């Protein structure tokens, strides 16, 4: 019986290995794979060289398109602007990799995890929230929360003197305060709740990568029984409780405002309240739901969870990387200060305006260069729903394709000396002729990041307010960051980013 079973398995494996699907995959260059295991032994996400191996070394060895096998499941990695454009620019190839369904227990069927008509409807409902008419409301929040962050840095300096600290928790708190208010209209949440939320989001992203790298955990019942699956469920329950509470509170508040609107005595008060109340994404979704859109409370929670996650985790990572690069390159920090001095006339207290933001050209170049070196989203994955011809190869329907932004951003043919911080790469005259898909920190095409303008506004306001008050430096600019980036769903430092803080003297000195 055992002999028969083994013989049958060997026959099926041999038949599968000779199939058109496998032959097309193996026609693409890539590291040598083992029977059944594929490249599983190479793809150790805990290896400090994992990021360099998959985004630099293998690209140099096998070219801008290579394949890897996770047991019997293939992945195709694309790492040139021309190749990723074939997928990202398509209006047909919009289906996310099934790996993203690992987020479904948390984010449900939101516009990030869904496809087809459902995705289009959800994106249409969320898009008005990012309209430029809401930018003034956003900028006010960005100013307030970044000013609070600057004061926290200043209080730390007052208490400890010029001090070396980990900037991660400061920027995580700033980013979370901003997104909580813009997404949920929540001006106050107790610190314990915020800390729990931050920890849970961070852990969920780690679990996502760990599950992808362990093929046996793709089977749901095995995953649910595993310690990783049980930990994931605890995190998700806590995250849902956080969002459900603020959504219920906001719905009640809007309902109360609507009921009071007809009261003559409250009319003046209502007008005053509405003029002061800022836009929140949840308000727009609740309004759409009340007006008959296909969006119930679970749907609202799904989209708010997505907006909160994307607006917190990716942005806080971008903030930390930017401050690290500013500390490491004081000459560029000084050039930003010169620009801030001109735009704000030496006033360190005045909030940013829309006009100010448009004039901060060098700051924007520095932000883009930081996002080139450390893109918050290092890769995205799509599941091909039809055969695609790319670079002389047929990528068969059903295969997962990874567009590796990190590799594109570090391609020396596009960006000479790619590890060097050079904001002038993004001067208009130096960007002429560059492929439009050579810099895609927010992805591109029909499924690009819906909040990219919001994110750039936020980063410019936050840094303009922080850098006018606090100087960031490192003890030894030649010393690299103690830990390489952690290649997860969001690209973060593995541990602390310790920078020296000191107050600025005499205006912007």
Automatic annotation (TrEMBL):
Its cofactor is heme. Keywords: Endoplasmic reticulum, Heme, Iron, Membrane, Metal-binding, Monooxygenase, Oxidoreductase. The keyword Transmembrane helix does not apply. GO terms for molecular function: heme binding; iron ion binding; monooxygenase activity; oxidoreductase activity, acting on paired donors, with incorporation or reduction of molecular oxygen. It comes from the Eukaryota. GO terms for cellular component: endoplasmic reticulum membrane. It is found in: Endoplasmic reticulum membrane. Heme binds at residue 449. Belongs to the cytochrome P450 family. This is Cytochrome P450. The lineage of its organism: Eukaryota, Metazoa, Ecdysozoa, Arthropoda, Crustacea.
